[in-house]
Specification:
Helix content: 25-40%
Number of domains: 1
Low-confidence stretches: none
Radius of gyration: 16 Å
Structural class: alpha/beta
Distance between the termini: 38 Å
Number of strands: 14
Shape: globular
CATH topology: Metallo-beta-lactamase, Chain A
CATH architecture: 4-Layer Sandwich
Number of helices: 6
Length: 208
C-alpha cells in the first residue's frame, strides 16, 4: 500500500511529497523545495530510494543539495530541465518511464509548458490509477505560470494529450496549494482551449 504525505515548505509553500510503501518502510521523495532540515526530520526513519523532481524551478529544488547529500540518494529530472536550470542529476525522467514501489508503480508523464521539462507522476496501485503528482503543470482553475504565449499553447496541448485523457475521478496533487480532480477542471479547460486566445496571453492564466 502506498501512503501519500505532503508538507508545504519555504516562502512559496511548495508541496514536498513523500510516497511511502508502508509494508516495506521505503519511500520516494518529490520536490524538496526548501527547509532541508525540516524535510529530513519529516522523513524520519523512512528509507528513501529515489528523489524525483517535477521541474527545475528554484522553489522546487532549493533544498535539493543538502537533502541528497544527507540521504545519499540518486536524483531524477527531465533532461530538458536539467539543461535549462543546470541541475546535476543521476538519471533522466523520460515520458513513459516507470518505477516500482512494492505492488504499485510510478509512471513519468512529460507535460511541457510551465517549463520545457515539466513532468507529472502517475501513481498506479493494484486497484487502479487514482491520483497523480502534477507539479506546476496544472492547478485548481488554470495551468501553471508560462513565460511566453508559445509556452502557454504548449502547456494546453500537453495537458490535452496527457492529464485530460485520464478519468474524471483522478485526483491531481499540484506543486502548491490544494488538490483538484480531472473532472473538476475538464469543462472549463476544454472551453478555454477551444476559444481563440488573446494575442500575447501568458503568465498567470485561469480557465475563467
Amino acid at each position: 500500500m502506498i501512503e501519500l504525505r505532503v508538507m508545504p515548505v519555504g516562502e512559496y509553500q511548495t508541496n514536498c511529497y513523500l510516497l511511502i510503501e508502508t509494508e516495506l518502510g521505503e519511500g520516494i521523495l518529490v520536490d524538496p523545495g526548501d527547509e532541508a532540515q525540516k524535510i529530513l526530520d519529516w522523513i524520519g526513519n523512512i528509507s528513501i530510494s529515489r528523489l524525483l523532481l517535477t521541474h527545475g524551478h528554484p522553489d522546487h529544488v532549493g533544498a535539493l543539495q543538502t537533502v541528497r547529500e544527507s540521504l545519499g540518494v540518486k536524483v531524477g529530472i527531465h533532461p530538458a530541465d536539467a539543461e535549462a536550470f543546470s541541475i546535476q542529476a543521476d538519471f533522466e525522467l523520460l515520458h513513459g518511464d516507470s518505477f516500482g514501489m512494492g505492488d504499485a508503480s510510478i509512471e513519468v508523464i512529460h507535460v511541457p509548458g510551465h517549463t520545457p521539462g515539466s513532468v507529472a507522476f502517475k501513481l498506479i496501485e493494484v486497484d487502479g490509477f487514482h491520483y497523480a503528482l502534477s507539479g506546476d503543470a496544472i492547478f485548481p482553475g488554470g495551468p501553471g505560470h508560462t513565460e511566453t504565449p508559445e509556452a502557454l499553447v504548449m502547456a494546453l496541448e500537453s495537458l490535452a494529450c496527457t492529464v485530460f485523457t485520464w478519468s474524471d475521478s483522478v485526483r491531481l496533487h499540484p506543486g502548491h496549494g490544494a488538490s483538484t480532480t480531472v473532472g473538476t477542471e475538464r469543462a472549463d479547460f476544454e472551453t478555454f482551449k477551444d476559444k481563440p486566445l488573446p494575442p500575447g496571453l501568458c503568465g498567470d492564466v485561469t480557465w475563467g
